[in-house]
Amino acid sequence: MVAGPDTRHNTSTTSTSEQTAVKNKRIWLIGGGSGIGRELALKLALSGNKVVVSGRTSESLADVESTFQQSAGSADSAGSVVPLVYDVTDDQASASVAQQVAGLVGGIDILIYCAGRCEYVDDAELSVDLFRRVYEVNVFGMVNALSAALPLMKMAAGSNADKPQVVGVASLSAVVGLPRAEAYGSSKAAAIYMLDSLRLGLDRHQVDVTVVNPGFVDTPMTAVNDFPMPFIMQVDETADRIIAGIEKRKLTVNFPWQLLLSLKIGAWFPALWFGVIGPRLARRDAKNS
Ligand SMILES: NC(=O)c1ccc[n+]([C@@H]2O[C@H](COP(=O)([O-])OP(=O)(O)OC[C@H]3O[C@@H](n4cnc5c(N)ncnc54)[C@H](OP(=O)(O)O)[C@@H]3O)[C@@H](O)[C@H]2O)c1
Fold first, then answer.
1. Which pLDDT tens digit goes with each residue over 210-255?
2. Which alpha helices (H) appear in the chain, and where do they start and end?
3. Can you tell me the distance from the alpha carbon of 181 to that of 185, in angstroms, rounded to the nearest whole number?
4. Tens digit of each residue's pLDDT (9 = 90 or more) over 110-158
5. β-pairing, 165-169 with 50-55?
6. Cβ–ligand 1 contact at 262 (below 6 Å)
7. Measured distance CA(120)–CA(179) in Å, rounded
8. What letter does residue 172 receive in the DSSP assignment?
9. Does the pLDDT of residue 4 top 50, yes or no?
10. Ligand 1 within 6 A of 238 CB?
11. Span from the CA of 204 to the centroid of ligand 1 (angstroms)
């Protein structure tokens, strides 16, 4: 039996009165069935964008569509939510999926890659299977989606007043080594480097790249965490920060600043981080795991 969507963390308060500055775009949002992606999909569609929402679970995507329809009502300014089931680890599907997106909404102005998988490593016991599962979604899945969408986005570059934009959701966990994040944190570091490098490659094609690095956000992904999550944010504010970054075409969107600063201090002073603070966090997390 396929489980229905987990709606416990779908705490959206989005309404048609809340308009974002990103409007009239054709957006492919991957990982939009829950958490941050779901909130982004609803806010962007309610602001007049055509949003194709992808993920593996059709029930979650249908729930986003029906929530959008209920919230939009008969508002003229609303755009649309179109569900499209897509598993980013499926290399074969990736070859044709962007054409399906283009068939549904006419093209891709913005690709938002929000799919993600988090698994922690216990007691430094490395497992190649665990790393593969995490990297398949956070790194190779991103490559699959980008390689599918970029040819269409490059074509759109010539004809659009606004440049097409790739938005990749990574994580602040990549700033400095964190306990138990050998797989998740390193996959996000790889994603950030890949997107930063791609930005240079895409410059002559007139396609912008925005990298989003959230701290802790209350979503189904973090609901299983049994350790303290400092400065945790809700999806509503998280989606607003991301949309503001998209609108300003920022290179990187990092938040919250308190967590960013704490982790940066760790990266700037490695002896302090790896000699004092990090080991304390590791011992605390080992007790909880
Ligand atoms: N929550 C946080 O504290 C936090 C912090 C920093 C960064 N992030 C990043 O933010 C992004 C969104 O995470 P979230 O917190 O909103 O968690 P989430 O609710 O678990 O969302 C992850 C989404 O990825 C989709 N997904 C997973 N595997 C997939 C696959 N193989 N193909 C297509 N879609 C897939 C899931 O949908 P299906 O299962 O239906 O496929 C789900 O909708 C992730 O990249 C995450 O790493 C989260």
1. 999 999 999 999 999 999 999 999 999 999 999 999 999 999 999 9
2. 35-46, 58-72, 91-105, 128-135, 141-159, 182-202, 235-247, 257-268, 270-272, 278-288
3. 5
4. 999 999 999 999 999 999 999 999 999 999 999 999 999 999 999 877 6
5. unpaired
6. no
7. 9
8. G
9. no
10. no
11. 31
Strands (E) located in the chain: 26-30, 50-55, 80-85, 110-113, 165-169, 208-214, 252-255
Do 146 and 197 meet the contact criterion of CB atoms below 8 Å apart?
no
Tokens representing 268 are 């700037």
* Segments making up each domain of the chain, as ranges: 26-260
Tokens representing 151?
Answer: 């040819």
- Cα 120 to averaged position of ligand 1 atoms, centre (Å): 15
Instruction: Say yes or no: CB of residue 169 within 6 Å of ligand 1.
Output: yes
DSSP 126: -
Separation of alpha carbons 42 and 67, rounded Å: 8
* Cβ(134) – ligand 1 distance below 6 Å: no
Bridge partners (DSSP) of residue 212 are 169, 253
Nearest to 83 by CA among 38, 149, 140: 38
Residue 95 tokens, joined: 């070859």
Q: Is the CB of 31 under 6 A from ligand 1?
A: yes
Q: One-letter amino acid identity for 113?
A: Y
State whether the beta carbon of 167 lies less than 6 angstroms from ligand 1.
no
Q: How far apart are CA 162 and CA 41, in angstroms?
A: 20
The label of the residue with tokens 């599907």 reads 93
Instruction: Kindly report the protein residue whose alpha carbon is nearest to atom 19 of ligand 1.
Output: 35
Residue pair 30/86 in contact (Cβ under 8 Å)? The answer is: yes
Look at strands 110-113 and 165-169 and give their pairing.
parallel
Q: What type of residue sits at position 286?
A: A
Average pLDDT over residues 174-183: 97
The architecture in CATH of the region 26-260 reads 3-Layer(aba) Sandwich (3.40)
Q: Is 35 in the pocket of ligand 1 (CB under 6 A)?
A: yes
Residue 229 alpha carbon, nearest atom of ligand 1: 3
